Amino acid sequence: MIKHPFALLRPFEKHLTCCLFTKEDGLITDQSVAEALGSHDYAALHQVHGSRTIVTRQMIKRTEQADGLITDQPGLVLTLRIADCQPIIVYSPDANIVGVIHAGWKGLVCGIIPKFLEVMQSNCKLQMANLQIGVGPCLCTHCADFSDPLSELSGIPPDLVHGKNADLRGWADRQLMDAGIQPQNIERMDDCTRCHPEKYWTYRGGDREAVKAGRTNVMACVLRK
Q1: Cα 23 vs. chain centroid, distance in angstroms?
Q2: pLDDT, tens digit only, all 225 positions of the chain
Q3: Cβ-Cβ contacts under 8 Å for 193 (sequence gap 6 or more)
Q4: Based on the number of CB atoms within 10 Å of its own CB, is 151 exposed (0-12), middle (13-18) or buried (19 or more)?
Q5: Residue 128 in contact with residue 121, Cβ under 8 Å?
Q6: CA–CA separation, 194 and 144 (whole Å)
Q7: How many other C-beta atoms lie within 10 A of the C-beta of residue 71?
Q8: Alpha-carbon distance 217 to 197, whole Å?
Q9: What is the pLDDT of residue 200?
């Protein structure tokens, strides 16, 4: 388990704890994630590569189909399961509200990032410029290969396509900044899941059946009182 993986969020660790669980942690249950973060309550989604976001103060045991989750409830652990997609944590220091986004390429196409931020702003009345963003390990451009990126990735800026490969990280960053996030408030972990199969579960890098069976990396966060 990697605790506080984002330097950008460490100044707020009295109010927010973030953790990343990787291959070395083995099979991780939602309950074990919550307990590792000092709680018994968690909210976990049935992630579907869509654009729906849920605001909650209660436990969710993968009964809701969505890819965005927001809470202002201290002690409620938010979890994301990822194995190549981009796991994004969004934190408002002003309001002490946190959210998570599961952003695969299909999510980028259907606008999960701007739609998540619209929900967060409309429900919580936040200033986009003050939000702090942490993005976990995910596919690098070299490993994000497609048959026909411009056709498959509807809406991607053409300059982010390089032959059969696509800069999905750059596309996500642009969607964040287009919504009003300040570039200095975005921090990324450099690791690529597919480049480091010894460290991370990776769907494209050889762990497809294991991932289908529930072995994934997990990004989790929880607000403190």
Answers
A1: 17
A2: 999 999 999 999 999 999 999 999 987 899 999 999 999 999 999 999 999 999 999 999 999 999 999 999 999 999 999 999 999 999 999 999 999 999 999 999 999 999 999 999 887 778 888 999 999 999 999 999 999 999 999 999 999 999 999 999 999 999 999 999 999 999 999 999 999 999 999 999 999 999 999 999 999 999 997
A3: 82, 83, 84, 137, 138, 139, 143, 200, 201, 202, 205, 217
A4: exposed
A5: yes
A6: 9
A7: 23
A8: 11
A9: 97
Written as one letter, the residue type at 154 is S
Distance, CA of 41 to CA of 149 (rounded, Å): 40
Sheet holding 68-71, edge to edge: 53-55, 68-71, 97-103, 86-92, 132-135, 186-188
Q: Which two tokens stand for residue 151?
A: 């056709």
Residue pair 194/17 in contact by the 8 Å Cβ criterion:
no
* DSSP, residue by residue, 156-171: --GGGEETTEE-HHHH
Q: Cβ contacts of residue 140 below 8 Å, gap of 6+?
A: 169, 192, 194, 195
DSSP H stretches of helix in the chain: 30-36, 105-110, 112-124, 149-152, 168-178, 208-212
Give the C-alpha separation, 127 to 148, whole Å: 37
Widest distance between CA atoms in the chain: 49
For residue 56, the SS3 value is coil
Query: Alpha-carbon distance 193 to 206, whole Å?
Result: 11
